[in-house]
Design goal:
alpha+beta; 7 helices; 2 domains; 5-stranded antiparallel sheet; single chain
């Protein structure tokens, strides 16, 4: 029997628990349920992963599906006990930045660009490569499950939307073990910096890191807000709470949640 340590040696060197499953409905749903039942069984940076996720979920309650073997679905348990409650909204943004850094480490030399569309969609050459969803473990507010779906071997015909892409479509081979290990390392580094700064993202350097990787800033955007309205303007910056600041005329609006479209 092949162990996760043999299949995912770099990930196992970073994570205290690596669990792989042949297929599942949702790695996030599985980890949330298991961590709620057995919280001590899932230490910080524990990983659950598969390349066959049947009922994945994205932000804004969207479904996320991919053919078996076409994408990598991974969930990571983050222990946020030492992170002030007011700053935990940074966790999904930090996760997006960490994945973008991990992708860039594999594609930059080949002339490809890895950035983030606010808040945490990872883009490869401007198209969506990876979506991220962070959810609090029921009954355990200091535990957060961060799920990511990375399009690895997906073909153009298999894309869920025309604005998506994959490593394969870009003509790139991905080292999945290195990708996840690099992502976990970057995620932990940024979270530890945020903890050391008592949740102050600017002082921790987290705000600057996220802004540097954010392809949304400086763009004309259309933001679909949770209430059904739409905000249009220029994305100016990310504020200390992780919100996207959009300038419309002379007025600034800070957006905490919404679906962003890059207009130009």
């Amino acid at each position: 029997m092949v162990t996760p340590e043999e299949t995912w040696p770099l990930v196992a060197a970073v994570s205290p628990r690596v669990t792989t499953v042949a297929s599942t409905g949702s790695t996030n749903a599985d980890m949330l349920a298991s961590a709620a039942r057995e919280p001590h069984a899932w230490p910080h940076l524990s990983v659950l992963l598969t390349d066959d996720q049947r009922s994945g979920r994205g932000r804004l309650d969207r479904s996320w599906q991919a053919p078996p073997g076409a994408a990598l679905a991974v969930s990571v348990l983050v222990r946020a006990d030492a992170l002030p409650a007011h700053s935990r909204g940074w966790i999904p943004l930090v996760a997006g930045a960490a994945m973008a850094r991990a992708v860039a480490a594999q594609v930059a030399e080949a002339g490809h660009d890895a950035r983030v569309k606010w808040p945490n969609d990872v883009l490869l050459d401007g198209a969506k490569l990876c979506g991220i969803l962070a959810e609090v473990v029921p009954g355990h507010p200091d535990a957060v499950v961060v799920g990511a779906g990375v399009n690895t071997r997906m073909t153009a015909e298999q894309l869920p939307v025309p604005t998506a892409t994959s490593f394969a479509i870009a003509g790139l081979a991905v080292d999945e073990d290195r990708l996840l290990a690099d992502c976990l390392t970057a995620l932990d580094e940024q979270l530890r910096a945020l903890e050391a700064a008592h949740g102050d993202a600017a002082a921790a350097g987290v705000l600057a890191e996220v802004e540097a990787l954010c392809a949304t800033l400086g763009r004309e955007v259309s933001v679909s807000l949770p209430g059904g309205s739409t905000l249009e303007g220029r994305a100016q910056r990310i504020d200390p709470d992780g919100r996207l600041v959009v300038m419309t005329g002379l007025a600034e609006t800070a957006v905490a949640a919404g679906d962003v479209v890059h207009v130009r």
